[in-house]
Design a protein that fits this description.
Layout: E1 2-8, H1 15-23, E2 30-37, H2 43-50, E3 57-62, H3 68-78, E4 83-86, E5 92-93, H4 97-108, E6 112-123, E7 127-131, E8 141-143, H5 146-152, E9 169-172, H6 188-196, E10 203-213
Parallel strand pairs: 1-2, 1-4, 2-3, 6-10
Antiparallel strand pairs: 4-9, 5-10, 6-7, 6-9, 8-10
Helix pairs in contact: 1-2
């Protein structure tokens, strides 16, 4: 099972798009884990309504906004999946995203699969502009040699193929064992992945752009 963890804070503009993309996934064994991080808008009501008939879901409503890092940690604790996938509430997935990433992680034997992403910006709630640079055409490849993994560590300093963001990745659950909390409101993705990276024996880079990042 794949646990898709979705932190939400005042996301009423985009949460429908996000959840629709999850509900339409072709992979059947999905757990939807929504963490409502103290939203003051209609995010909670929208999520509860959209997921009312979903078979495998949980919604945690936090009274106080504690930030993305703590929301993700809450989501990990509430989830049951063999694999963890983080999806931001203003982003969305291609309908075959989870199926293709599960296939890649199982066939490659990697600890983590990273897909490509397509970045865009929405202006005035109606104009969608794509941003060049995220959806580069590459071939899929496996990084499984220690010397190559060491080279990818340079991604944390702006060089390399590994995207230090938490999204667009499927993680084996055990990578989060012993994860430390920094109580950060900035740089939380970098902090988490710097703890995960030393545990990786193999990374699979999937060539397809399956994640839409706003």
């Amino acid at each position: 099972m794949v646990s898709i963890i979705i932190p939400v804070y005042n996301g009423q503009r985009t949460i429908r798009r996000c959840l629709n993309s999850v509900l339409k996934q072709t992979y059947p064994d999905i757990e939807i884990v929504v963490i409502n991080d103290g939203s003051t808008d209609n995010s909670r009501e929208i999520a509860e309504s959209m997921l009312s008939s979903a078979a495998n879901k949980s919604i945690t409503n936090k009274e106080k906004n504690e930030g993305l890092e703590m929301a993700r940690r809450t989501g990990i604790a509430a989830s049951k999946g063999e694999f963890i996938f983080f999806l931001d509430a203003d982003d969305y997935l291609e309908k075959e995203a989870i199926e293709k990433m599960v296939s890649a992680i199982r066939q490659s034997g990697a600890d983590l699969v990273q897909c490509q992403s397509i970045s865009f910006i929405t202006l005035f709630k109606c104009i969608k502009l794509h941003i060049a640079g995220r959806n580069k055409a590459i071939d899929s490849w496996l990084i499984d040699k220690k010397e190559n993994l060491k080279k990818e560590f340079m991604s944390f300093f702006g060089c390399g193929s590994f995207n230090v963001a938490a999204w667009a990745k499927m993680y084996k659950r055990e990578l989060f064992d012993g994860l430390k909390t920094g109580h950060l409101f900035f740089g939380e993705d970098l902090y988490m992945n710097m703890q995960v990276f030393p545990k990786l024996n193999a990374i699979y880079m999937l060539s397809e752009p399956l994640y839409h990042y706003e």
